């Protein structure tokens, strides 16, 4: 296959060869020996909302047992609060939601957006969102500022316009998007868009940029947000002596300088393991409890009591009007109620994380070993520039390959998040041809985690199934690189 002269031609060549890539991928699945009976039933992560992992045996039993009992929901919510306070201390509180996105929505509306009531025109507010990965999650709740980002979410998601990401924008709220120092925002993909390449992020130079914008907009500034991940591919590779990402600590310090909340989206993260709000200075952290944690579909908000009181009020959880310490009533966001069974599974999942976190971190160690062994079989020219690291926070192994593009030479093709939504991310759609359910594999970064047909009922890693999935990914990378003219 010819080696293209220009980058856009590489992706044009890949697009023209999608049928050939799919044909080779199907053939490769047979060569690898992936059994027919597991094809389409296993994959590279159980932490995707669209295809969540089966629940662990202990989670299932807790949900089934409690489902047959009469339990007030306020009692279950208080039990979650007690577990959170056991770990983080009495100054923290919690509130469960139907999803992580619901948790982010209520946090931003309560803490970042201007009030609706009162005479006269409403004022505008702004929150800061670093230009990082998954920006459509944490950065899409206000009108983008500066104007060059006005259309950044136009094609993202399955629906455009008022019923798509534009419809998430909250009342008179702006998102101040700040590119990170040391990051690259090169254009890649068949759906040719800028992608955040973050392994080179300089946290101290980045906070200087962010602080400049904070000072410039201080009269409107109401909050700062970021992701809660801790890996190089997400821009958090520089850590202090305790292993805490320096950039997250600096964001917390900056927020507190302006007396505004630092709200962290840790969707693909574990409570109590990895990201620690006490070390980063985060005021509120939001989790997707069905991703890394393994509970039923639901979200969880953990934060300092000062900020959790209005959040819990908005959810109808924070006390009846005649005076109680907790309630389960009606409020603005009662629609975000997760329900009894989700609460039961959250309680069990949180107990395991508090008392026996090795149940979730142990398989990550095994997975890292398998990933390194299988990726070592790539041709040497492709291996150079790949960074493999594990994340207990996300119970995942990260494969970052943006370093394969160096000195002006083309590397392993990078697909944009727009490719994912357009169906033109071949590192995802090609895996489906092999019978492997794909994972997050865009922006030069791939996350792999246990759970989707690769663990037993107790959560232990299954070596055979895991190797099939990782081996399929490695083989697909080789095929894609061949048609890109790199091999």
From TrEMBL:
This is Uncharacterized protein. It comes from Desulfocucumis palustris. InterPro entries: PyrdxlP-dep_Trfase, PyrdxlP-dep_Trfase_major.
